[in-house]
Write a structure and sequence with these properties.
about 400 residues; Rossmann fold; alpha/beta; 2 domains; globular; about 40% helix; six-stranded parallel beta sheet
Length: about 400
């Protein structure tokens, strides 16, 4: 008997968490929330990115999706042999692609920042190539099968939720839009005294080239006396003018990082390709207006110019104009930052959003037990979170 069927025992939840890029930050939020939630007994499987060696050079089977899925399948089957599982949670769809048989035995919730169809739209900046027609049709069919087998899907944005429904035929009532959120105790809009002189700009991004760091450096280098720039990245850089500073080896646990957000007046991420850009929400929570590009879910985060400025990717002239505009109108920059902070507090509080996610997992496990006992139970009966209609 599963623990969900025992009075007073929380359901056992298997959490399969991909550890690439922003997914590692998301995974940490999920782990913290699951550990604290009274209706979840979690076991965590972390899927770390590793270079594929010889396997990565094999056509069709060497991709990260295949390697992550094989690892997840092996680890999940091992965990399920150790103890019964009431519900599984998989982030992202990448390690979930070979878990179809698991989904027939255990109700599974899949969470992702982007569907493969979403990623095809922005993937060129990641070095991703869209395959030939037949190959893409096979891939889309496989993803649709996995998505439809899932008990529920969690989309980080409306952009992703829409793709789940339109591109993969998932019923809208099984798609839940739950953004990851940010830790509002770390990223908060504190009081910023009025400043004079160059406007202080912040950029945070390990993948410096893809995130548009080079474009930003070129622009700020041409604006001495108007803007100064702090860069947080893992990339070594040299030959920069004195008004551009580089901060390396900082992580989300580094106290220097929130301090840099507090010292900044504008956050700039002129990214060439992104799906969700979690750091944009962190900047908004810190009360910063954001300059970015209309890729992935970023336009819905910034709204129609209320919380920041969108510039075409790769357009350094538009980027320069946006920076000069905010530098010359600090009142506008502060107003945008204020609206950004209010939006982040209302919609991207990680404690609230992760609580909703844990409630979804608990309800999914509960429904499984109810169905097993022959009762009429439906996930739609639980007012868990916003659904896509």
């Amino acid at each position: 008997m599963s623990r969900a069927g025992r009075v007073g025992a929380p359901p056992r939840a298997l959490l399969v968490l991909e550890q690439t890029l922003g997914n590692a930050v998301y995974g940490a939020l999920v782990e913290r929330a699951a550990t604290a939630h009274r209706d979840i007994d979690p076991e965590v499987i972390r899927i770390h990115y590793r270079e594929g060696g010889a396997l990565s050079r094999l056509p069709g089977v060497g991709s990260w999706t295949v390697r992550a899925s094989l690892t997840a399948r092996s680890e999940v089957r091992r965990a399920m042999r150790r103890r019964p599982t009431d519900v599984a949670f998989v982030c992202t769809s990448v390690p979930g692609m070979l878990l179809g048989d698991v989904m027939t035995r255990v109700p599974t919730v899949i969470s992702t920042d982007a569907t493969p169809a979403n990623f095809d739209l922005v993937g060129v900046a990641y070095g991703h190539e869209v395959g030939a027609g037949l190959v893409e049709t096979i891939k889309r069919t496989a993803v649709a099968r996995i998505f439809r087998r899932a008990a529920a899907l969690v989309a980080w944005s409306e952009w992703t939720a829409r793709s789940m429904v339109v591109d993969y035929g998932v019923p809208p009532n099984r798609v839940h839009r739950i953004p990851p959120g940010v830790d509002l105790s770390l990223f908060t809009a504190g009081e910023r005294p009025a400043r004079h002189g160059p406007i202080r700009v912040l950029f945070v991004g390990s993948d410096f080239e893809r995130k548009g760091g080079r474009d930003l450096v070129e622009v700020v280098a041409s604006l001495p006396g108007t803007a100064e720039l702090d860069i947080v990245t893992s990339q070594a850089m040299s030959g920069l003018p004195p008004h551009i500073r580089v901060h390396r080896e900082l992580t989300h646990r580094s106290p220097e990082l929130p301090a840099l957000f507090q010292a900044a007046e504008v956050f700039a991420l002129p990214t060439r390709g992104d799906t969700y850009a979690h750091v944009v929400v962190e900047a908004m929570a810190a009360g910063l207006p954001v300059i970015s590009t209309p890729v992935g879910a970023i336009p819905e985060l910034l709204g129609s110019g209320e919380r920041g400025v969108l510039v075409p990717r790769g357009d350094t002239r538009a980027l320069r104009d946006a920076l000069v505009r905010l530098a010359s109108d600090r009142g506008l920059a502060r107003a945008m930052g204020s609206r950004a902070a209010a939006y982040a507090r209302a919609t991207h509080d990680s404690d609230a959003n992760m609580g909703r996610l844990m409630d979804l997992l608990a309800a999914t496990a509960h429904d499984r037990h109810q169905v097993a006992r022959g009762r009429d139970a439906s996930l739609s009966s639980h007012p868990i979170t916003e659904r896509v209609c």
